[in-house]
Amino acid sequence: MDVPAAHIRADLPYRDIARVLAREQAGALPVVETEDHVVGVVSESDLLAKVAFEASGHRPGPIGRLRERRLHGKARGETAAGLMTNPAITVLPGATVAEAAWLAALSRLKRMPVTDREGRLVGVVRRDALLQALIRDDAGTRAEVEATCPSADRDAVQVAVHNGIVELTGRMPTATARRLLAEIERIADVIEVQNLLGPGT
């Protein structure tokens, strides 16, 4: 997850939105209101409809397709609030990588806002990061975790890794386990640590 997450305010004019998208090199950004509540997402497609409408004055015919009519409605917007797609598709921080990846695939989003349970923006997860997380090398992650474990405790601790989720079983002194967990969580390929360690002697 990318933190802090680039975002735009609902009252930002469309020309400024285009500049922010270019600066952030992002195809879409979450739109936030008071207290960073996510209310929608503005994408390059939304802006294209706006500028194409202004350039050509194109309007859908009497039997225009529903999608075309929706684009026309958006094209009249002047700010993020009028151009955005809403409600926003978001994911909670506690979601698994597989859950987030499935949602991103269904929605065809390249960047998905991550919100807390009150709908406040806490980060953005990128589709390419989700993909890399799902195809990670679990054997390599396990070797790195085992190397992190203090040599005196290696025989008493078993490490298993599946899709970046590390499971620790065995016994280890509580203070040592606390330090080990903190180090493992800093390993780039680790998504989650399941601590099933019992207290050592």
Explained architecture:
- This protein is α/β, with parallel strands linked by helices and 201 residues long.
- The chain has eight helices and eight strands.
- Helix 2 (44-56) crosses helix 3 (66-75) and helix 5 (97-107) crosses helix 6.
- The protein is elongated and about 75 Å long.
- The model has no long low-confidence stretch (mean pLDDT 84).
Percent range of helical residues: 25-40%
- Count of strand segments: 8
What is the N-to-C succession of helices and strands?
EHEEHHHHEEHHEEHE
Distance, first to last CA? 38 Å
Unreliable stretches covering 5 or more consecutive residues: none
Q: How much of the polypeptide forms β-strand, as a percent range?
A: 15-25%
Count of DSSP helices?
8
Residue-averaged pLDDT: 84
Order of strands in the sheet with the most strands?
A: 1-2-3
**Cα radius of gyration in angstroms:** 23 Å
Class based on secondary structure composition and strand pairing: alpha/beta
The biggest beta sheet is recorded as: 3 strands, mixed
Q: Which outline best applies? A: elongated
Task: Describe the SSE topology.
Elements: E1 8-9, H1 14-24, E2 28-32, E3 38-43, H2 44-56, H3 66-75, H4 80-83, H5 97-107, E4 111-115, E5 121-126, H6 127-134, H7 138-148, E6 157-162, E7 165-172, H8 174-185, E8 192-199
Parallel strand pairs: 1-2, 7-8
Antiparallel strand pairs: 2-3, 4-5, 6-7
